[in-house]
Design brief:
Helix content: over 70%
Radius of gyration: 15 Å
Number of helices: 5
Order of helices and strands: HHHHH
Structural class: mainly alpha
Strand content: under 5%
Largest sheet: none
Number of strands: 0
Length: 135
């Protein structure tokens, strides 16, 4: 899928998120739930949380402004669910690790197939430029 160059950074981060989901699942399957949780927590804080913040600060308000409320609400709900599962893993709970991996995979697919195409079609160039220039 051809992606607007200004969204390619976020899209590339989605690839890393899918690798994280597969790694968590593989570690669980190998009976290494503690390692899976440690890996999830580390990568969530370093990679996913900053990614979410960019989307929430730049893309979601602009999408809400053009009337794409359902997409915004779905994204916010996914982010909240993933944050809660990561927080539970950080707190020692291992029962949500599989759910985290599944939810993350579904979320990435949603953003690549629905959210980002809508951003490309509906958002002003200034918003996309700001996303592309984020640090």
């Amino acid at each position: 899928m051809k992606r607007d160059p200004r969204l390619r950074g976020l899209s590339s981060e989605h690839h890393h998120a899918l690798v994280l989901a597969r790694t968590v699942t593989a570690l669980i399957d190998a009976g290494r739930a503690d390692d899976a949780a440690d890996h999830l927590v580390d990568r969530f804080e370093r990679e996913l949380e900053p990614h979410f913040r960019v989307e929430e600060a730049l893309l979601l308000p602009a999408l809400r402004g053009v009337g794409e409320v359902a997409l915004v609400e779905r994204t916010e709900a996914d982010h909240a669910s993933l944050r809660a599962l990561a927080l539970a893993a950080r707190g020692g709970r291992r029962d949500g690790l599989v759910a985290f991996a599944e939810r993350l995979t579904d979320h990435v697919r949603f953003e690549e197939r629905e959210l980002f195409p809508c951003c490309e079609a509906r958002l002003p160039a200034a918003v996309l430029d700001a996303v592309g220039q984020r640090s």
